[in-house]
């Protein structure tokens, strides 16, 4: 029977956070979907779990259980980058690896046919853990026969005992794996928090208790996702390994008609060979981590082949070709090439790129600003001078006075600063719209924007804006209001006018 292993790097985003703040290791810590009081908790450490904090809670609810809880966002691109790094580390031990799409930090490995290379599966699993530990990742590995069984075993007892991090679970038969999986608490699995809470209210706290529920009833009452989980846990559904193919290094080779000794001309040829490689990297959504440059040198017919090899490694994955060329220039310009170079070979090693890296590559594309200006002139000639405008920030006390629209005279190359993605006001009305009166203090029943949106179900605030004695005295109490259709609006109560207004829509 084929063997399968599950490697769990538990709460991978949390591990990345602890790396950043090592002094938080003994404190309750949570990774948030959004850094707001109502942001959902996605991952927690064991200290937070012992305080009663669970995934799916809001940050505010977690703080109510333990005031020392630290909640931080982790950029999705950083998680993606770490998954790619771990995947390449695991390829040292097996060629077939499947990173989980649903659970960041969970990897399934093909553990079949390893006996000629390792003394036992236990020894193999120990080496996998040791490799990850030396790379700064805590992990646990379970070797068994099924996807769910190994996953459940890998999630068992994590963090409760320091020795658990150094132990691997190896099942000798499928029955032992199934028995162990049935004992796992549902709270240890990354399942839908709502499903977990509902099952808990029914007294279903373990995989075994969940499996004992009738399959048809699970589908009817809890939906298709719960039914899929039930089939996996019961053994009715067995999904084979779906390994992620290894990414082959990109190469480029150039034969020179005449031996070249001039460094500047060599760099020009190298850049011309690099351009399509960087385009291919961006197409793959990868970024360069290392570059190997091989220069074949001119030799006589009776001499052995001569080759000069230069290896470069960037500080971080990049799609900035200028950075790589600068490193190559520093490396090549100090080389002596008396016999000349007859061939150039480039070998690129890469990992999956982050969103910011891909945007950098896109911004480096050639833009004809003069052609854009000519198009702008044609539009203004056809439709008027004020047709094309751009926003300009101004100093203003009130939100609607913090920007103005000005005619666009010239097209400029975009150069946006790096910013964190945060919830922002998607649309700010220049003139606030008067709303129907709010008859009750509670949000329930207030038809903020008509029946099609439903009544208000949540309100957060107030955030007071007051003053303006130099023009008009203003006192506004702003709120974020959520309607039944999950749409958020930015509203305020004007205390001087005794009326409610809609000022914007929130994303």
How many strand units? Answer: 19
Helix content: 25-40%
Identify the overall geometry: flat
Strand content of the residues, in percent? 25-35%
User: Largest beta sheet, briefly?
Assistant: 5 strands, mixed
Distinct helical segment count: 15
Give the end-to-end Cα distance, rounded to a whole number of Å: 51 Å
Describe the structure.
The protein is flat. With 507 residues, the chain is of the alpha+beta class. The protein folds into 4 domains: 4-182, 3-Layer(aba) Sandwich (MutS, DNA mismatch repair protein, domain I), CATH 3.40.1170; 250-361, DNA polymerase, Y-family, little finger domain (Dna Ligase, domain 1, 2-Layer Sandwich); 369-407, no CATH class; 425-506, no CATH class. Strands 5-6-1-7-8 form a 5-stranded mixed β-sheet. It has a 5-stranded antiparallel β-sheet with strand order 15-19-18-17-16, with no helix packed on it. The chain is built from 15 helices and 19 strands.
What is the gist of this entry?
The protein is an alpha+beta fold and 507 residues long. The protein is built from 15 helices and 19 strands.
Topology overview:
Blueprint: E1 4-8, H1 12-20, E2 29-32, E3 41-44, H2 46-50, H3 59-65, E4 70-73, H4 76-90, E5 97-99, E6 106-110, H5 121-134, E7 140-144, H6 147-154, E8 168-170, H7 174-182, H8 193-201, H9 207-211, H10 215-222, H11 224-234, E9 250-260, H12 263-284, E10 286-297, E11 306-318, H13 321-332, E12 341-352, H14 355-363, H15 369-383, E13 389-393, E14 403-407, E15 425-434, E16 456-467, E17 474-483, E18 488-494, E19 499-506
Parallel strand pairs: 2-4, 7-8
Antiparallel strand pairs: 1-6, 1-7, 2-3, 5-6, 9-12, 10-11, 10-12, 13-14, 15-19, 16-17, 17-18, 18-19
Helix pairs in contact: 6-7, 10-11, 12-13
């Amino acid at each position: 029977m084929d063997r399968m292993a599950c490697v769990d790097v538990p709460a991978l985003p949390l591990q990345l956070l602890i790396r950043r703040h090592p002094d938080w290791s003994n404190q309750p810590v949570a990774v948030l979907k959004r850094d707001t009081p109502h942001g959902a908790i996605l991952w927690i450490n064991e200290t937070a779990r012992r305080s009663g904090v669970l995934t799916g809670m809001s940050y505010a609810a977690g703080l109510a259980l333990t005031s020392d809880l630290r909640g931080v966002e982790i950029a999705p691109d950083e998680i993606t980058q770490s998954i790619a790094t771990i995947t390449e580390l695991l390829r040292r031990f097996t060629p077939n690896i499947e990173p989980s799409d649903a659970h960041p930090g969970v990897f399934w490995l093909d553990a079949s046919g390893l006996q000629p290379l390792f003394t036992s599966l236990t020894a193999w699993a120990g080496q996998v853990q040791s490799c990850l530990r030396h790379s700064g990742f805590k992990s646990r590995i379970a070797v068994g026969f099924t996807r769910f069984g190994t996953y459940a075993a890998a999630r068992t007892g994590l963090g409760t005992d320091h020795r658990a991090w150094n132990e691997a679970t190896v099942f000798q038969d499928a029955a032992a794996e199934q028995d162990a999986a049935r004992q796992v608490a549902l709270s240890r699995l990354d399942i839908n928090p709502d499903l977990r809470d509902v099952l808990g209210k029914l007294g279903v706290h373990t995989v075994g208790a969940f499996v004992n529920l009738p399959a048809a009833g699970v589908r009817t009452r809890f939906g298709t996702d719960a039914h899929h989980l039930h089939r996996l846990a019961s053994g009715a559904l067995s999904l084979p390994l779906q390994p992620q193919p290894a990414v082959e290094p990109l190469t480029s080779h150039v034969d020179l008609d005449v031996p070249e000794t001039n460094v500047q001309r060599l760099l020009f040829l190298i850049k011309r060979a690099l351009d399509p490689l960087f385009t291919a990297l961006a197409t793959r959504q990868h970024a360069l981590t290392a570059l190997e440059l091989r220069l074949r040198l001119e030799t006589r017919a009776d001499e052995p082949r001569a080759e000069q090899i230069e290896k470069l490694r960037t500080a971080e994955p990049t799609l900035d070709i200028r950075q790589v060329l600068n490193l190559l220039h520093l490396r090549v310009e100090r080389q002596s090439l008396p016999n000349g170079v007859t061939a150039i070979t480039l070998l690129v090693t890469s990992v999956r790129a982050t969103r910011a890296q891909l945007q950098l590559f896109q911004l480096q594309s050639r833009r004809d600003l003069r052609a854009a200006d000519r198009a702008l002139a044609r539009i203004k000639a056809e439709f008027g001078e004020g047709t094309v405008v751009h926003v300009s920030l101004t100093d203003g006390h009130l939100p609607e006075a913090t920007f103005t629209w000005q005619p666009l005279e010239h097209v400029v190359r975009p150069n946006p600063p790096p910013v964190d993605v945060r919830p922002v006001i998607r649309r700010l009305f220049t003139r606030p719209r008067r709303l129907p009166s709010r008859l009750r203090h509670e949000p329930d029943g207030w038809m903020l924007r008509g029946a099609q949106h439903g009544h208000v179900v949540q309100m957060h605030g107030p955030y007071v804006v007051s003053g303006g004695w130099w023009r008009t005295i203003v006192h506004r109490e702003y709120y974020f209001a959520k309607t039944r259709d999950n749409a958020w609006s930015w509203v305020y109560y004007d205390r001087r006018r005794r009326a409610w207004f809609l000022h914007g829509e929130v994303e």
